[in-house]
């Protein structure tokens, strides 16, 4: 069992709090992606878990062991870090075999594991070369092969695919996911690439300014982002945000966006009633709106500004009052710039966001809303 538990981890560099009271538990054999913009503290947190940098306070547990102050070699982990480079004086074969040789694994087992890892990472033909004779992307693949060959219970990876070209990255993403499921290691994987996070992780931990904002399944993070930042960071295009106004009517609430009335679901109506007379942010994804060529009673008339045919979809930029948003349509939906279309908002796909705090309102938060 190799559950990883981070409890109230804090790490400061002078005035910068790189990791700000983060707690999270990665289940045994789970694949968790740490995601966030540059400088949000992902690497610092991963380094603390690896033992490459100590936390100022808090605790790190791997399985039942408190590893907070243990050196990396005593933590039972394998890792891929930019700073933890492969050995330049060793051939690729010996680099990949290194961890297994340290564990004094039988020769036949080393051979098998090196071949298997090399095949997966497409480096079989370089086994006889020195790292200096490889490209940056090839060296990175050697580092990943070395980490997975050992079969540790815990695998920590910091942007392991960052030096690969787009096509290889796409291929490796799927292969690495398959392999990691096969070797059943508990994995923490750092990336700032949200597509990588969505496609690979069992769960995604989204960080910003050293804080953990959300820790959920990829679909939950995408569909119900905890706040405006997460909705804007995840997804391509990002979630749309529209300015709305809450109005209470007959004890219930409705939201007006540019004269268009949205009636919240019965679960959300009481929460929104607490915002009577106040502005609210309406969050909706591009693919969750319905674009119509003809007027319909429950649809809002909008002007198309830009049409981007992307093959599998047409991405429209449209104007609603002061708001400019993106709507995704079927590629057969033919429309030209400056033309009017009608947009329907499926009410269950709307995320209501507190304008002051930026937090997404959910029915459970009802008790926190001041009437
Ligand atoms: P990136 O995606 O760019 O690698 P990150 O999310 O991994 O970013 P970290 O490298 O963890 O971010 O850095 C978090 C914050 O801590 C940043 O503001 C960074 O400048 C600061 N920081 C990191 N390491 C040090 C250090 N050794 N000394 C001083 N400040 C540091």
Can you lay out the helices and strands and say which pair or pack?
Layout: E1 4-13, E2 16-26, E3 31-35, H1 42-50, E4 57-62, E5 65-66, E6 77-80, H2 92-102, H3 107-120, H4 136-149, E7 154-158, H5 166-183, E8 186-191, H6 194-200, E9 203-208, E10 211-216, H7 218-223, H8 228-233, E11 240-249, E12 252-257, E13 260-262, H9 269-273, E14 279-284, E15 290-292, E16 300-309, E17 314-320, E18 323-329, E19 340-344, E20 351-353
Parallel strand pairs: 3-8, 3-9, 6-7, 7-8
Antiparallel strand pairs: 1-2, 1-4, 4-5, 9-10, 11-12, 11-14, 12-13, 14-20, 15-19, 16-17, 16-19, 17-18
Adenosine-5'-triphosphate binds at residues 13, 16, 18, 36, 38-44, 192.
Q: What can you see in these coordinates?
A:
With 371 residues, the chain is of the alpha+beta class. The protein has two domains: 230 residues, 3-Layer(aba) Sandwich (Rossmann fold), CATH 3.40.50.300; 127 residues, OB fold (Dihydrolipoamide Acetyltransferase, E2P) (Beta Barrel). It is built from nine helices and 20 strands. A six-stranded mixed sheet has the order 6-7-8-3-9-10, with helices on both faces. Strand 12 and strand 13 form a beta hairpin. Helix 2 crosses helix 3. It is elongated and about 75 Å long. The two termini are 47 Å apart.
């Amino acid at each position: 069992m190799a559950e990883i538990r981070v409890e109230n981890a804090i790490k400061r560099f002078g005035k910068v709090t790189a990791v700000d009271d983060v707690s999270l538990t990665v289940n045994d054999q789970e694949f968790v992606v740490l995601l966030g913009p540059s400088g949000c503290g992902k690497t610092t947190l991963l380094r603390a878990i690896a033992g490459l940098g100590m936390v100022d306070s808090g605790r790190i547990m791997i399985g039942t062991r408190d590893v907070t102050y243990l050196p990396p070699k005593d933590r039972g982990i394998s890792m891929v870090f930019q700073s933890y480079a492969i050995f330049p004086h060793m051939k690729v074969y010996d680099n990949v075999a290194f961890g297994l040789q340290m564990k004094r694994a039988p020769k036949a087992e080393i051979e098998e594991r090196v071949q298997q890892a090399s095949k997966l990472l497409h480096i079989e033909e370089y086994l006889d070369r020195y790292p200096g004779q490889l490209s940056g992307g090839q060296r990175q693949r050697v580092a990943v092969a070395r980490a997975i060959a050992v079969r540790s219970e815990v695998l920590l990876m910091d942007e392991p695919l960052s030096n690969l070209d787009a096509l290889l990255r796409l291929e490796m993403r799927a292969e690495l996911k398959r392999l990691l499921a096969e070797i059943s290691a508990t994995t923490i994987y750092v990336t700032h690439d949200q597509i990588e996070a969505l496609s690979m992780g069992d769960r995604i931990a989204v960080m910003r300014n050293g804080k953990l904002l959300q820790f959920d399944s990829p679909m939950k993070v995408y569909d119900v982002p905890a706040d405006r930042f997460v909705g804007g960071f995840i997804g391509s295009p990002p979630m749309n945000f529209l300015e709305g106004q809450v109005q209470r009517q007959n004890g219930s609430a409705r939201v007006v966006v540019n004269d268009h009335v949205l009636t919240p679901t019965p679960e959300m109506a009481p929460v929104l009633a607490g915002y009577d007379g106040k502005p609210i942010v309406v969050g909706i994804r591009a693919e969750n709106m319905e674009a119509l060529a003809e007027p319909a009673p429950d649809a809002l008339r909008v002007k198309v500004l830009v049409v981007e045919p992307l093959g599998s979809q047409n991405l429209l930029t449209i104007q609603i009052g002061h708001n400019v948003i993106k709507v995704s349509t079927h590629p057969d939906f033919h429309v030209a710039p400056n033309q009017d279309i009608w947009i329907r908002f499926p009410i269950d796909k709307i995320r209501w966001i507190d304008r002051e705090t930026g937090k997404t309102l959910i029915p459970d938060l009802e008790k926190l809303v001041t009437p």
